[in-house]
Amino acid sequence: MRLGVNIDHVATVRQARGGVEPDPFEAARVVAASGAHGITVHIRMDRRHIQESDIARIRQAELLPLNIEMAATEEMQAIATRYRPHKVTLVPEQPGEITTLGGLDCFRAPDAIRRFAALGTEFGMDVAVFIDPDAKQIEQAAGLGIQEIEIHTGEFAKNWPDAQRELAGIAHAARTAAALGMRVAAGHGLTVRNVVPILGIQAIEELNIGHHIISRAIFRGLEAAIREMLETIERAAFGGSRAKE
Ligand code: PXP
Question: Which domains are assigned to the chain?
Fold first, then answer.
């Protein structure tokens, strides 16, 4: 099982101030140093977190395989062509949504999906679609030349721990895709608790997890950051810089 860490929300905090910290590139370095297997970023049409300049730096550093999530638009196709990441994951995007609300409807814009699949072949990029655990969607994606799916686990996560039906649906979808020769990833809303039953689904080879990891990082790191500031204040006091005033 590979873990791709989605670092979007490091950029969300940076954008809240419009400054330079925290830097998603630093986050990408930590992801690489932590033993994860991939870096995932979602470039949104409104650029509310990850910017193209972040992608440029992360891509150039070749830290780990880079997965860029994007809508299947011409603007995003140009970005995929410019940076040629290891993987592009096509996601639906609706103006004003707080997060991705569901899987891509592969019946809705088949030509765009076909174009991305062809782009992947041309530039040696994997192209995945983020879809609901629905056999019809998976078969349609395969028919459009897509060789990888990421199963949307959002409904499962929302209903957890009463999510047996959703879990069975994900397992069935993963088997359906694997039987069609597709690679299978999963993600959205996963946590250290609800990921456990997902890990029991053999066909799933990769997870993409963001919000929970970044949220946990705050409480794993907050005490250390406060202590660092207190030590700085104390050092200044004992060094005499306050006494001089
Ligand atoms: N996979 C896809 C396709 C996503 O759009 C997202 C959210 O950007 C994730 C995985 C990660 O979801 P979460 O942040 O809830 O872990």
Answer: 68-238 (3.20.20.70)
List pLDDT tens digits, range 107-127.
999 999 999 999 999 999 999
- What would the pLDDT profile of 85-99 be if each residue is shown by its tens digit? 999 999 999 877 777
9, 42, 49, 152: the catalytic one is 42
Q: What are the tens digits of pLDDT across the range 28-54?
A: 999 999 999 999 999 999 999 999 999
Active site residue 86: no
Q: How far apart are CA 155 and CA 49, in angstroms?
A: 24
- Look at the pTM and tell me if it is higher than 0.90: yes
Testing ligand 1's pocket by substitution, the residue of 43, 70, 100, 209 carrying the most ligand atoms inside 8 A of its CB is 100
